């Protein structure tokens, strides 16, 4: 009986990521089809090139996107793991087929371009976020950027951004609309925001690094007032040569003010650094299985 339950659990865990990828690819393609394509809002990467070619020569968006991605898959095989690779190819195929098959079925948005850019960014970002959460990627320029990073040590983000900006500007030129480039940036920003929210969730907490000469007092104040654990590490101030203790703890965002009060109340000369953390697993936060 126990063995059968284990097999069912494994099968469920294997299938669920593919469902995320499938749903995400369809949602992404729908957002592109409804909000971006009808009003000629530029996009970056391979998708942007495909939309531009469709505008100039009426070529099928999905099929051209897929054809451009095929040579990149050979690069992706080396830069991505097999699971990421298979899911990326699958997501590209699903979204390409959906865009072309639904082109004359799903009506496009005909309102203001700024509204279209807002909704397009949110919907496409939601779709891509589900694809990423399922273990896939968007392919295209992501693969090129990762390959160049390995070969030429060019930062992935820099290369990806550069390619996207070039495609957006060229598209805006052919669309004969300078404003469309701005709308493309708005859409891209919202898309990235939605991806982050779906991949990392709303679990943005605060990591605190505290350098103090009163570690016992500060630790006790944090432990008693905020009920969060504290980790101590030895540190040396290189300017003065004095021995210090560095404390590390994580608190909820709404506890930031209380943390400052607890630390500075014990040591007004403490050095406190706060930074965002996307996900926190452990006692008082999320369980690993979530």
Secondary-structure blueprint of this entry?
Layout: H1 2-36, H2 45-57, H3 61-79, H4 82-101, H5 113-133, H6 141-152, H7 156-175, H8 178-200, E1 205-212, H9 215-226, E2 231-236, E3 243-251, H10 256-266, E4 271-277
Antiparallel strand pairs: 1-3, 1-4, 2-3
Helix pairs in contact: 1-4, 1-5, 2-3, 2-7, 3-4, 3-6, 5-8, 6-7, 7-8, 9-10
Please, could you describe this protein's structure?
- The chain is α+β, with helices and mostly antiparallel strands and 290 residues long.
- The chain has two domains: 2-200, no CATH class; 205-277, 2-Layer Sandwich (Alpha-Beta Plaits), CATH 3.30.70.120.
- The protein contains ten helices and four strands.
- Strands 2-3-1-4 form a four-stranded antiparallel β-sheet, with helices on one face.
- Helix 7 packs antiparallel against helix 8.
- The longest helix is centred in the first third of the chain and has 35 residues, at 2-36.
- The protein is elongated and about 70 Å long.
